[in-house]
């Protein structure tokens, strides 16, 4: 299986548009999250490039470090999701028990939700200090991250229904609902703040 991170944009879009089931929705969710994180990093970079002796520089530096570590982790989930679902399909073709493969395929989008949730926390710091010309970019980043969480949640729901381990299913559903609710609240907070700044 190719590494989708090494493809050109056109080839990557073709991969998603192909008749192959992977990469699919889970990979698209991860890619969306990585784009959102990248836009937050751009807004920080523009703000940090301006001379400032205020303490906010330290806050932004911390946010940069967190986002810098999150982006490759989320980007790697594009490939990992495709690989996990390909393993599920292989198990189905061989007519063997695919429980462990589906378990892994459920964990990957759940990881996407966790990582994008963390990025949305950093978005509050970015929004508070971003210069006016990047407020729109921060808003788009937040919308992308929120969409990534929601999309990954849909993938979790689609996968978890095939699992037999009731205890694990309940744990996943509880965490999935919590991550979705917290992400929605964080996104709303940042977007409301940005709207107030634009008036």
Core attributes:
199 residues; 81% helix; Four Helix Bundle (Hemerythrin (Met), subunit A); mainly alpha; globular
Task: Provide an overview of this structure.
- The chain contains six helices and no strands.
- With 199 residues, the chain is mostly helical.
- Helices cover 81% and strands 0% of the residues.
- The model has no long low-confidence stretch (mean pLDDT 92).
- The protein has one domain: Up-down Bundle (Four Helix Bundle (Hemerythrin (Met), subunit A)), CATH 1.20.120.680.
- The N and C termini lie far apart (49 Å).
CATH domain class: Mainly Alpha
CATH architecture: Up-down Bundle
Low-confidence segments, given as residue ranges, are none
Run of helices and strands: HHHHHH
Instruction: Report the sheet with the most strands, covering strand number, pairing sense and barrel closure.
Output: none
Helix content: over 70%
Alpha-carbon distance between the termini? 49 Å
How much beta, percentage-wise? under 5%
- Would you give the CATH topology? Four Helix Bundle (Hemerythrin (Met), subunit A)
- Overall tally of domains: 1
Mean pLDDT: 92
Structural class by helix and strand composition: mainly alpha
Radius of gyration: 18 Å
Short description:
This protein is mostly helical.
List the helices and strands and how they pair.
Blueprint: H1 9-17, H2 25-48, H3 56-93, H4 99-129, H5 135-160, H6 166-198
